[in-house]
Amino acid sequence: MRETVSLAVNGIPVTVPQGAMVSAAVAIAGFIGFRRSVTGQPRGPLCGMGICFECRVTIDGQPHRKSCQIPCSNGMDVRTDG
Amino acid sequence: MDRKRLDCDILIIGGGPAGLAAASSAAKNGRSVSIIDDNPNPGGQIWRGESSKSSIPQAAALLNKVKDLGVDFIGGARVFDQPEDHLLLAESLNDVLELQYSKLIIATGARERFLPFPGWTLPNVMGAGGLQALVKSGMPIDGKLVIIAGSGPLLLAVASYLYKHDAKIVLIAEQTSRSNLLKFGLGLIGQPDKILQAIDIKKQLFGVPYKTNCWPVSAHGHGKLESVKLKQDDRTFEIDCDYLACGFHLIPNLELPALLGCETDDGVVKTDQFQQTSVPDIYCAGESTAIGGLDLSLVEGEIAGYAATGNEQQAEHLFNSRQKHRKFADLLNRTFELRDELKALPDQSTIVCRCEDVTFDRLRQYNEWRAAKLHTRCGMGPCQGRICGPAVEFFLGWKPESVRPPIFPARLDNLIRVATASAEVDTVTR
Q1: Fewer beta carbons below 10 Å: N end or C end of chain A?
Q2: B302-311 pLDDT, tens per residue?
Q3: How much helix, strand and coil, in percent to the nearest 5, is found in chain A?
Q4: Measured in whole angstroms, how far is the alpha carbon of residue B395 from the centre of its chain?
């Protein structure tokens, strides 16, 4: 079996396959809005490849991390603002 | 946070097919070759995830070859500035990297073109390649209702990928006309491999409706996408879905070549027959020189790798093959040219700049980029106009402005560190 990684998204425990990006973990945890826009609208990933910055989340206390380009790791604490 | 320095003969920016092909031909000559990419693994978008999965033999072969040749791969780092000739700065999660090179090969590829329409900012409205990238990154799509729309051969490739991952594809909507597509098919005669590819994809998608002359006009939902209104000829209709995967063909990533002073022509980097740009020691290969697909990217990369290591004879052997693939690129770009009706997509209140939430009617109060930027902050958010810029160019005809460093948002402490380091150097030389 493929190895898995366990992390938390807004406090909800999620297990994903090794190599999965944080964006996938957020979706698996059931969150659709990743961040709030400057006028307060919920936003989610658009480009999926690090160009649009719409998938930004807070990872281990670090804000503005692009969830589509950062692989999940064990014990990661991910927070969305959508 | 650490500052690391790397010296290499050949530095390649971008680890997609063009960058990998360049690395393989450059490293054959025993030079030190490094590839840097902002994604954690090599493969680019088309081969995303292939470095661990090896499901595509062509990708696995090239990835293994590059590894065996001892090419250094630096993942998760993006170039943001060029403080002096032959020196680039990149930022990774925890470090600043100084990259010194003798020859540089730019293989930064392309991104999807997005056209704003009412509702396109709703979560679950994504790029076509965008949704595919997310699924490749581990997001489940099985049982989800997906509409794939926009333009270009990518739509079919994405459809076939999602279909294999058990998505329910409700519709593929292609804005170009049926007659353009037929001409495209005729243009492929003489390239049987490409026809077979097309037939193969079509077979896989048996039963999925594919409409031409058809495009999305609005997306609807409360907090997330619930349905999409589309237009075909004079008819509009609404379909329920979980995801809209929508991209209007591709556009080259020109920010880095522009920062380095490489000349562009008609939206692509200008190169000579050896893939050299207008700047000495800087080469460019792949989608940044023309949207031409995998085969053209591979052969351009290979030529650039040979040429950058002084192996011009071997590069010349590949010119014929490149010529053939360039014809395909021309045909591709003619076939999927955007129709003028798409200029009517945004309404007054449609957000064009998603970083700063600037609406179309606010933009239209100005007649050029600079004024619009100064008054609205359009294009001045973290994506630096990468998403709204091409849309504004299509809707209003405004050409992109010059590029200034940092070309990607960099952390303040890294910028301060760079500034402090150069100030120290100044003091010493004085």
Answers
A1: N
A2: 999 999 999 9
A3: 10, 35, 55
A4: 20
Paired tokens of B221: 């939902």
A49 inside 8 A of chain B by CB:
yes
Alpha-carbon distance B319 to nearest alpha carbon in chain A (angstroms):
31
H or E segment to which residue B373 belongs: helix B369-376
Say what percent of chain B tops pLDDT 90. 79
Where do the H-state alpha helices sit in B143-216?
154-164, 178-187, 192-204
pLDDT for B51 equals 87
Q: Which residues of B touch A42 (CB under 8 A)?
A: 123, 223-224
* Beta-sheet pairing, A42-43 with A35-36: antiparallel
The mean of the pLDDT values for chain A is 95
A12 part of contact set with chain B, CB < 8 Å: no
Task: Give the helix ranges, DSSP H, for B260-318.
Answer: 293-308, 312-316
Task: Of B215, B39, B44, B221, give the one whose Cα is nearest residue B125.
Answer: B221
Q: Which one-letter amino acid corresponds to residue B33?
A: V
C-alpha torsion B146→B150→B156→B157, nearest 10: -90
Half-sphere exposure of B266 (CA within 13 A, CB side): 5
Strand pairing of A4-9 and A77-79?
A: parallel
CB-CB under 8 Å, B52 with A49: no
How far apart CA A29 and CA B382 sit, in angstroms, is 26
The arithmetic mean of pLDDT across residues B141-152, rounded, is 97
**In chain B, which residues have their Cβ closer than 8 Å to the Cβ of A41?**
121, 357
Which of these, B124, B215, B200, lies nearest to B163 by C-alpha position?
B200
